[in-house]
Amino acid sequence: MNKSELQRLPAECSAGDIIEVCELDGGVIVDGWIQPALLTKFNTELEPWLDSHKGTNSGSRASDSFLGTQTRRLHGLAVKAPSFIKILTDERLIAFAEEVLRPVGPTVILNNGEVIDISPGESAQPLHRDDDAWNFANATNPLMINTIAALENITSEMGGTMVVPGSHRWPSERSPNQDEIVACELPAGSALFFRGDLLHAGGANVSQKQRRALSTGICCGWLRPVENSYMNIPIDVIASLPKRAKELLGYALYDASKVGGGFLGYHDLGDPMQIFSSKE
């Protein structure tokens, strides 16, 4: 294995395996993370939404440039593709997030559930760290973890995610040499797991194929997430979801009292989860 390549783990790996490799390299590829039947169902649910998508238009030129003007992105997946909830509540994903983020937060929530469909001709993103979304935090540990799951076979020519293994240990001002950057090739259903302090970027799509992937990011419970799930998902849909999904979507009181902190996210000075108690 090239010194800059990421390690690969089998589908039956444990959360501990993922955590161990990410501590060393910043990221790891888990082959076969999404089972074929679930992958097929999820892709089928996505088709009408992607077919009607009109392209990136956030209202910000800087945002659109970063996200890609030839890339289709979907949020609100609990409504648009309900099988996303099974992916979101995967025990290994949550355990990975909780362990990595534990030093800076006792609970975790969804940062983004985002389908990223890159068209031919799309340019590469600049290398970045996802933690940079909260650049004033000055945290000593990652503020989030992310996964990029291939919804179809992804090659480097299609815009496979570029990563810089080991860069989670670098000073923020250090830039990588070209031979330190790796393009991840992912068979459908495989996923790249990585920490929020790892340098990475979406690659340029120089092929003639769409590059479709799912980004599922989880952040500390005290942060404002990238995705506004309160606006994206109607409350009646939230009410029908499993308890763990509700918590990850932000419908639980943040309680840091056991680590000397306070409380965030009250609903009428109570735990928001109480509004669902009579329906469960």
Q: Which CATH top level class fits?
A: Mainly Beta
The arrangement of helices and strands along the chain is EHEHHEHHHEEEEEEEHHHEE
The percentage of residues in β strands lies in 15-25%
Envelope shape? globular
The count of strands amounts to 12
Q: In order across it, which strands form the biggest sheet? A: 1-2-8-5-10-4-3
Q: What structural class do helix, strand and pairing data support?
A: alpha+beta
Q: Give me the CATH superfamily.
A: q2cbj1_9rhob like domain
List low-pLDDT spans: none
Mean pLDDT: 94
* Count of individual helical segments: 9
List keywords for this structure.
25% helix, 9 helices, 280 residues, Jelly Rolls, seven-stranded mixed beta sheet, alpha+beta, three-stranded antiparallel beta sheet
Report on the structure:
The radius of gyration is 18 Å and the shape is globular. Strand 1, helix 1 and strand 2 form a beta-alpha-beta unit. It is 25% helix and 19% strand. The model has no long low-confidence stretch (mean pLDDT 94). It has one domain (8-233): q2cbj1_9rhob like domain (Jelly Rolls, Sandwich), CATH 2.60.120. It is α+β, with helices and mostly antiparallel strands. The chain has a 7-stranded mixed beta sheet, with helices on one face. Strands 7-6-9 form a 3-stranded antiparallel beta sheet, with no helix packed on it.
